[in-house]
Amino acid sequence: MALIEINNLKKHYTSGEDTIEALAGVDISIEAGEFITIMGHSGSGKSTLLSVLGGMNHPTAGEVEMAGVKLYDLPGEELADFRAQHLGFVFQSFHLLPYLTAVENVMLPLAIVKMSTHDKKSAACKALEQVGLGAKTDRLPNQLSGGEQERVAIARAIVNNPHILLADEPTGNLDSTTSEHVMALFRELNDAGQTIVMVTHNAENGRYADRTIALRDGKVVNS
Amino acid sequence: MKLHTISINNLKRRKAKMAFLTIGLMVGIATIVILMTLTSSMSRDIEHKMEEFGANILITPQSNGLSMNYGGIGLGGVTFDQREIREEDLAAIKTIANNKNISAIAPKVLGGIQIGKHDVLLVGVHFDSELKMKQWWRIFGEAPATDNQLLLGSDASKVLNVSSGDTLQIKGETFKVSGVLEQTGSQDDALVFASLKKAQDLLGKQGRITLAEVAALCSGCPISDMVTQIAEKLPDAKVSAIQQVVEGRLKTLDQFKRFSYAMAGVVVFIGSLIVFVTMMGSVNERTTEIGVFRAIGFRKKHIMRIILFEAALVSLLAGCLGYLIGMGGAALALPLMAESKNAHVAWDATVAGGSVGLALLLGLLASLYPALHASKMDPTEALRAL
């Protein structure tokens, strides 16, 4: 069975009397260990799809099944627990907390996990080493370059060994050289077994992925 | 990394806002501490004065007599049924409910007696309790220590032409004048004081007393209640309060207390509003941050815990500073408000604990809605980018 099964997924937004169909019946199947990029023009529904996959945006219709769990059947705060245990997020604007050092930012998902502070720090340092920032653990975000901040964001996303890594335009704010380095890092993580679903508008990024899904007007046009 | 690490680091980052929040709450707490400490110090000051003023409850024999007195000029009285108080009955006073508020009981026996060619009023007293009650007495010589010693009022000493160390003959007995009172301007100036037992013997009133004065410490207890309680214990006595001046002051203080509490309420309300607005602003500024927390799996309760922990830390700081500043303010204001130079501000653990507790309670209550609001934020809306 696939790690992620999306069946007839629909998401409608209403604005006044208008209804916007962000996702119009999407069916996708993603195997464990795959590196998928989702591409499409602005308004194609790719970011909506990622937020639904992330358990943060209830669909209007359809099902999302991850690791055997029907995501939106989970009651109350169990969806938050699922995110904590199975998902890692990398955001376009990094969204690092400016008042925490690199290692503290990476430790953030572990703040709600029962572990000793020492173990949390070890895990965070290991994640930072994995993204090549082992020497800058005590830097604040404003003391790091854009590419380095993105790496810290990736380290934060992988620190709790998630089943699936979701990334939203991770190279959107980076120059081309830095973008390549970041994409190479994602490739390395995928080579190590990490399942990755990445939303991007940059066609160049597609060459690092195993498969690219193109969206147009809320529908999959190739898979 | 624990949830409180996030709170502490956020407080460090938003120093100006948190300082504003702390000051807002601190001013409220300091105001309450100033008002409470001032009223309590002033109460103590008045209590002290009450002791200095002496008796505030008078016990006299019950009678059906009609006072014949007009404009301070006494014309004698018509007594139909004069009852007496027995000395042993006074022990019952110490069994009243408010007995802890009794500072001293001073029984007296009064009677006219002839000394030489002069008629004088002899007063038998327990000198220990009398001197405790009449702290304004200044004695030339010594207070009587034995039954054969007398204390004379200043006018009495002049009329009898004796001074401290001289002797007097009363009914064939020799008494030594151990001391003479400095002029008091009261009836005491004309009196001759002897020990209660000796005066009872001389007047032929063994075991009986004419009146008793009771000094009560009563800023917290109602004198009228004590009067009722004593009257119940001594049915044959007339018990009345003589405390108009002090009571007037206590009433003024009570009005000041009420005004203080009203003012404190307004200040606390404003302080809470400052906490609410600042915390709400802080939560709205941190929308993205809260979105990240929710995205990485924080539960609503985790978000609330972060916000409330911040509020608790700030409130604790505001409570401690508010108490210290309030005590300082009270120490500065007390000399201007209290009448006595002896009035002082007392460090009170209850007020200290209450200040910190109140600050904590207000801070948490005022932050509850902002915390709930934060916890209910939609992570997708919060992050927007997703």
UniProtKB/TrEMBL annotation, chain A:
Coiled coil: none
InterPro entries: AAA+_ATPase, ABC_transporter-like_ATP-bd, ABC_transpr_LolD-like, MacB-like_ATP-bd, P-loop_NTPase
GO MF annotation terms: ATP binding
Keywords: ATP-binding, Nucleotide-binding, Transport
Segments forming domain ABC transporter: 4-223
SUPFAM superfamilies: P-loop containing nucleoside triphosphate hydrolases
Ribosomal protein keyword on record: no
Keyword Nucleotide-binding appears in the UniProt entry: yes
Protein name: ABC transporter ATP-binding protein
Species per Swiss-Prot/TrEMBL record: Pelotalea chapellei
From TrEMBL, chain B:
Keywords carried by this UniProt record: Cell membrane, Membrane, Transmembrane, Transmembrane helix
Pfam families: FtsX, MacB_PCD
Homology family: Belongs to the ABC-4 integral membrane protein family.
Organism, as annotated: Pelotalea chapellei
Membrane topology, as annotated: Multi-pass membrane protein
InterPro entries in the record: ABC3_permease_C, MacB_PCD, Macrolide_Exporter_MacB
Protein name: ABC transporter permease
UniProt KW Transmembrane helix keyword: yes
Annotated ranges, domain MacB-like periplasmic core: 21-207
Higher taxonomy: Bacteria, Pseudomonadati, Thermodesulfobacteriota, Desulfuromonadia, Geobacterales
